[in-house]
Amino acid sequence: MEKNSAEEYSADQIQILEGLEAVRKRPGMYIGSTSARGLHHLVYEIVDNSVDEALAGFCDSIEVSINENNSITVLDDGRGMPVDIHPKVGIPAVEVIFTKLHAGGKFGGGAYKVSGGLHGVGASVVNALSDWLEVRIYREGKIYYQRYEKGNVVSKLEVLGECDPEKHGSEVTFLPDETIFEETVFDYKTLRTRLREMAFLTKGLKISLEDKREEKKKETFHYEGGIKEFVQYLNKTKTALYDKVIYCEGDRNGIHVEVAMQHNDDYNENCYSFVNNITTPEGGTHYTGFKNALTKTINDYAKKMKLIKESDGVLQGEDIREGLTAIISIKIEDPQFEGQTKQKLGNSDARYAVDSVVSEQLTYFLEQNPAEAKTICEKSIVSQRARMAARKARDLTRRKTALDGMALPGKLADCSDKNPKNCEIYIVEGDSAGGSAKTARSRATQAILPLRGKILNVEKARMDRIYDNAEIKAMITAFGTGIHDEFDISKLRYHKIIIMTDADVDGAHISTLLLTFIYRFMPELIKQGYVYLAQPPLFKIEKNKKVYYAYSDEQQQSILDEIGRDNSIKIQRYKGLGEMDAEQLWDTTMDPSKRILRRVTMEGEDLAEVDITFTTLMGDKVEPRREFIEANARYVKNLDI
Does domain 6-222 have CATH number 3.40.50.2300? Predict the structure, then answer.
């Protein structure tokens, strides 16, 4: 990348908006939470600043290290933060960056045209939430150094010595404050996922991650193909329908647009959108522009080539996007985000920019690649027919409100309380366990829905088969929210959806099938924390007419250590829920005052990685599944084989 002189990035480009007082008192306002998710967010803020240097054309390499003491170091080869005195406050500009909230070169000072960091909260918040932070700057042949503790300056900016005049960049090392964060141990896998994504989105940028703790590992992410390689990576567990990745790139009114896409033999749409390298999970105008262009261009081509009949009508967007993996990435100078979570782009000109670039370049691709174009159209037409066949079945599962519309499924033993906040539904494996659960339950607040055998694997089925499946229809109707575009969280009838299966291989498989269904069709239930896994006991231990339950091998050993191991002891190993009578099931697994529930979350996980995991586990390709199981088997506990 071409680098301009350091003089162009100086103190007068650093603008101050407000102070830093509230950050330590209300950290959640600035980083979302003080859980592991908030902890890792600190790293992303510092790395985002380095990526902004790359987007501006001044940085080729970023090195991230997890140090032995669990501090983090981020080193880039950008211009180096400004060290001259800020004209308004009379302190070095680097000190302004780390001690003043919303201070930086991204607020109209001219240092950056586009910035991902503006979406975040900046280096000052990382500093405020760290036990200590040190910054080294390599600039104009000198090494500058400053240290902060809990956001406060403890040493003035000083020159440590000289360096090669050609060396330039910034190095930030910080240790999160353990009095603020619930968790202070960084997870290598979580950081790897995000840094790999950043490298995909900035073609040519090299990002390395090194773990200097016990396991000692290092990886480098460098993709000259950028988002084209991102699409190939996301499709690695699927079978692409054509070899080429369709790539569209262009500029419209100062907005840089990049789109890459490729269809696979899957039935799910996997489209991810980004603004200035920051993910926009709720989409926005750029994603809308992409969908408009794709739908119109494919329909125009299919009509022109007489691939669809007049009687078939037009292809809907959902038909064309079935099995599509796509990345929509734009760079825009002044992004405007909508909603409470700021995860949806609102700039109207972004819609036009993406629509225009994709329409033009996708048309060229289809004309120049007739074989691929025909494959896309045929896939869309088959999807259209399946959608029309599914419409009738879908209508049967649709409910206008939680209390009217279609009748609840007959096998559902509903609860009497109608306030969803008080209600929970147990999805139970098998009629035998379902019978015990119905007897054991608290009828006011606990509903029971028994399932017969293993439900359909939605990863391998089209919508018409899914809507025609009795077990899936029962769940859709019982939950009340609808699915896909008709999903409405306000109509959820139970604020706890509890999956209760046997603690064996079959039970684990059924749980995975159920989670796959919920993730693919009602992901918001997981995101908002409504989905749980029940944890039935593994052992019943009896001694002198006293009963103990153990939920793990370790707990069993602990109980035996406590009560002794003499011959009057009777130990029963539960193979399934059906072995427990109603009273035992209530005492161990359903009584809210005693039971153990595990909430299913996606916290700290990238959505693309979650998608790859589900496809790996539930898709057609055997080899990726075998590799995944081998890599993760050591994390599984208490699973009978």
Answer: no
